[in-house]
Amino acid sequence: MSVRLLESAQAELDDAIAWYASQAPGLGDAFLIETLKTLKLIEQYPKAWHPLTQQVRRCRLRRFPYSVVYAQEGSDLLVLAVAHQHRKPGYWRARLN
User: Fold this and answer.
1) Which residues of 11-42 are buried (b: 16+ CB within 10 A; e: fewer)?
2) How confident is the model at residue 3, as a pLDDT?
3) Which of 10, 27, 63, 88 could form a Cys-Cys staple with 5, CB 3.0–4.6 A?
4) Please, what is the Cα angle at 69 between 42 and 51, to 5 degrees?
């Protein structure tokens, strides 16, 4: 099973890394490492995380207020969003199609 990010999810990840990097030295790297750990967990245990809909799940990052929103697409996992937990809930739903 492999994990793929939608282009918009990759852009969200890049923006969050840049923002955290501007806040303190090394914080952007810490965010990236935490996100990569979360993606690895999702890859290992795709059904273990909170279901948002019948096909979409969410795994929260431990240290940062972000979630990885993903869906299983065949044998792959498709990351729909790297979403801040306190902004625009459900905005990623339009990306399902």
Assistant:
1) ebbeebbeebbeeeeebbeebbebbeebbeeb
2) 93
3) 10
4) 80
Q: Whole-prediction pTM value?
A: 0.91
Please compute the mean of the pLDDT values over residues 15-23 and round it to a whole number: 97
Domains in the chain with CATH codes: 2-87 (3.30.2310.20)
CA dihedral 50, 53, 1, 82 (to 10 degrees): -70
Q: How many residues are given for the chain?
A: 97
Separation in Å, CA 90 to CA 38, 43, 45? 20, 22, 23
| Number of other CB atoms surrounding residue 88 within 10 Å | 9
